[in-house]
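In the current project phase, the collection of sequences with tokenised folds has grown. A representative record is quoted in full directly below:
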Amino acid sequence: MIPAATRTTAAAKAALPRLLTTLAPYQAAVLRIGVAGTWGAFLLREWPDRRVLYGDRSPWSAELNARLLADTHAFTALSWSDGRWWFEAVYLLALLSAGALALGWRTRASAVLFALTVLSLQNRNVFLGDGGDNLVHLMAIYLVFTRCGTVWSLDARRRARRPGKDPAEWGEPRALADALAAMLHNCAMLVVAAQVVLVYATAGWYKVQGARWQDGTAVFYPLKLGYFTPWPELSGLLGGSLLVTFALTYGTVVMQVGFPFSLAARRLKNVLLAVMVCEHLAIALLLGLPFFSLAMVAADAVFLPTAFLLAVQARLTGLRRRAAPPVGPEPAAPVATADPADPVAAADPAVDEPPVVAEPVGEQRD
């Protein structure tokens, strides 16, 4: 019988090569695009009121914020100067860094700038944030440590057009740095996954303790608040049905409490994930909270199956090719020189085999 210590050592040696490769690149790309796009869209929407929210016209003055920062020691570049033009420069830099990160342009540098500007604006007036802002705050920090520009980015497109050295030709220092960067990326993605699980677990268990959630009426009240009813007729229709209110209230609690446990069952996790994405989209529509919902959907992307993301990529690529006009004359069909019955020789040369990609954190390939 093999000793337990020997089995553990063998398993660790077998897992080490996988830990030193970049896992979940597609999930990291969706997280990058979602978080940066959400924050950039929020800044654009608030452009007319930016000075009132975070700048020199804010009721929460720079002096009051300085007192708070003395206790919290939070970072914000806006504490360096309370002038208007310094604020305008930081706000514009926040917009540019969000756009650059969403597009995947110079991802490492833009991720750092994005995190610094998110912290600078949010810590200038902490009383404006909601759950979505808190999530963007955390994800902006985590993205700094990920390789979120490996795919679906301008950086990836540039690398494909101008490939560098073969990794086999790298020297030992660069190979070691690459392995450490891959491990750091994997750890960051694991932290992102743990953060999402923590968000749902705490939200679900706090709801369980609430009297309105226990009697099945909690969803009714926000549907009757004017601030959360951009579509009063639709909100009234849903809130007027006791059965719908009851189902939405209990369904929300069951999904949030059960999601952490569903990670042990891949198919159940995928079903709950799809339902929760639909729930967030419904919150964006019914309660008028689009940025909160988009931030949650972007964070949920860390659990999306790689096969699903590849299927979406293939579908979008096919649509783009059909929509793009043909350039130049059609190439002549190749002359078959091998036996037509040979399936290898008869295969379409324009169809590539799907790439082998890493699986998302904590699950096997779907």
Summary: The mean pLDDT is 86. Residues 172-208 form the longest helix (37 residues). Residues 20-157+175-195 form one domain. The chain is about 65% helix and 0% strand.
